[in-house]
Design a protein that fits this description.
β4 (167-181) and β5 (184-190) form a beta hairpin. 43% of the residues lie in helices and 17% in strands. It is globular. The protein is of the alpha/beta class. The protein folds into 2 domains: 7-58 and 143-270, no CATH class; 86-137, no CATH class. Strands 1, 2, 3, 4, 5, 6 and 7 form a 7-stranded mixed sheet that branches.
Length: 302
């Protein structure tokens, strides 16, 4: 039986293959894969180039931590919340019933208390949307969907890390959620860790990465994920329920520029095969690769 591919599958198949085990010397060969970059891989490289090498190039295994497990379970629970939420059912409920309804959409498990904070946040947001007659904006237009796109990184985009040529790279990633408000898209990141104000810069870079993917994906890829072409990303937001911290702001062009320059820096590392340890004991002591890290081994405090 011959299975006919849909337009999305055809478009994805026509993109070049991609890999983290990338060799810049093979770039001119169209049969060789190009560099894959995700939000997580780029963030890992900026955190520590050697950790990036261990995790993405060498594919060394990592320990599964409690934080990783918690993040996966709570992300899945919030995705299911939006899949199950019935606006027609909640539309006429009084406030207390809306809160109870939102809470009922989360399973009683080890993280139920944390999810009650999420439930209260969404209940209040629903009530606000209802009061302002914009219930159509409550549910996300994208709920945990993957985007794929290719972008060109110019050789001189980052003067500190010049490249030998222009490169096309593949961006890929799953966006937590995107909301549509006032004719513009708002990507929202969901984090299950603690919040510090010092995280704001890195969060803006993460959100700018999502913006890059949305702006460079083809109409077919966007529509497959629930998004419409030519709708601008006007704001971005992040939510840390454990810290009861939510922030939404207009996009910052400087953050997108910074991400593009960071991608150039990563490509420069591949060109020169340089992935040094960025070691600092307080930062790195919980890393899975701590026992084999050159930085840790050579640090006088260890």
């Amino acid at each position: 039986m011959v299975v006919k591919m849909n337009e999305y599958d055809v478009e994805i198949k026509n993109m070049r293959e991609y890999t983290y085990q990338w060799n810049p010397e093979n770039y001119s060969d169209p049969t060789k894969p190009i560099l894959k970059i995700s939000k997580s891989s780029l963030g890992c490289y900026l955190w520590c180039p050697l950790k990036y090498q261990y995790q993405y190039i060498e594919k060394r295994p990592q320990d599964t931590t409690e934080a990783m497990l918690k993040g996966t379970i709570m992300h899945n629970a919030r995705e299911k919340f939006f899949e199950d939420f019935d606006i027609n059912k909640a539309e006429s409920m009084p406030r207390d019933e809306v809160i109870d309804y939102c809470s009922s959409l989360f399973e009683i498990d080890d993280y139920f208390e944390d999810n009650l904070t999420v439930a209260m946040f969404e209940a209040n947001r629903f009530l606000e949307c209802r009061e302002e007659n914009r219930l159509e904006e409550f549910l996300p237009v994208l709920n945990e969907k993957k985007l794929d796109c290719e972008i060109t990184i110019l050789s001189d985009i980052n003067p500190k890390f010049p490249l030998s040529r222009n490169y096309v790279v593949r961006l890929q990633g799953i966006i937590d959620r995107v909301f549509l408000e006032n004719g513009g898209y708002i990507p929202m990141e969901f984090k299950t860790g603690g919040w510090k104000d010092t995280k704001a810069t890195s969060m803006r870079k993460e959100m700018a990465f999502y913006q890059l993917m949305i702006e460079n994906s083809t109409p077919t890829v966007l529509r497959n994920a629930g998004l419409e072409p030519n709708t601008p990303v006007t704001h971005w937001a992040w939510f840390y329920p454990i810290a009861n911290h939510f922030h939404c702001e207009p996009i910052k062009k400087s953050s997108k520029t910074s991400v593009i320059k960071s991608i150039a820096k990563l490509i420069h590392a591949y060109e020169n095969n340089q992935f040094p340890a960025d070691f600092f004991f307080k930062k790195c002591k919980g890393c899975s690769y701590f026992p084999i890290c050159d930085g840790a081994i050579n640090d006088s405090w260890v």
